[in-house]
Amino acid sequence: MEGKMKAAVFKDIENIVVEERDIPECPRDGMLVKVVACGICGGDVRNYHNGLKDGIKNQIMGHEIAGVVVETDNTVTRFKPGDRVALAPDVSCGQCWYCKRGLVNLCLSHRMLGTHFPGGYAQYIALPSDVMHRGFIEKIPDGMSFDHAAFAETASAVIACQKYNDVSLGDTVVIIGDGPVGCLHIEVARARGAKKVIMVGMDKLELAESFGADYLFKNTDQEKVKASVLELTDGIGADIVICAVPSVAVQEQALEMVRKRGRVVIYGGVAKTKQTAQLNSNLIHYNEIMVLGAFSYPATGLADALSAIHSGKIHAEKYISAHVPLEGVVGGMELVSSGKALKVIIDPWLK
To answer: Per-residue pLDDT tens for 136-145?
Structure first.
């Protein structure tokens, strides 16, 4: 397919430029997709300020993608032009120790759309053979909007996290972080049968109110928050505390609010310059607390999230606060950072 397209290109730290580029050719064993919606992820904001993994520059960012197939190589049989598709970023190698055991999110050669491959901050995206065979591409269910399909990537990791940590009937769950991920943890915990859901946040608590937490606390006084959680749990602490904000201080705080033999989940990476937490090892030891990480999702992750949104267990419409054109990418990131929006969607065709 010949012609020109617009793309928002990450040149360097805090430098994104909208450029006119050639529409990429349909790759061998791959396909070309017209991007209709691409979400701005908290990870994108962090990368904008700190740089892409491996020092990559001059790259098209964006990995929460929904669009329409416009061209396929003649070897591709799973998709055809006109199919509506949702994309998630992870691309595994299929050969390492983890991939052979189905743990594709832990792949030793893990790559991502928007970092190692051009992403969705553009009007078109080419999906090469590696992405077709070892990436995440799913057909969008009938009746689902492109916006909601793009949001499914965000939901995928939340669903996988709570499944892995067995959030279940009767649990008391504390979620620290009031962004879209924190709000998703509320909805997923409810769907899995949690008895009591407590959110601890800062600047988006007003936006988070509608998601059904039993209690919301502003995290300006950590001792007061800790006392409130203990009071609500008869002095025992929560069954599980999910750190849904990239802060080592929050990870340290979580240990003070979880019960003996409870779980603290570190969800989401922090900036490379702030990646060392000082966890109270005596609390972990004497209280037999489990501290776990949660990253990405299994091979069924994107399909699971699309199903949860399609069935109404997750209400994607409540998260999407604004749409911006490619020229508004940085402004969209500022909306997210300032707490004025939960999820901002880029419409590459918006003028």
So the answer is: 999 999 999 9
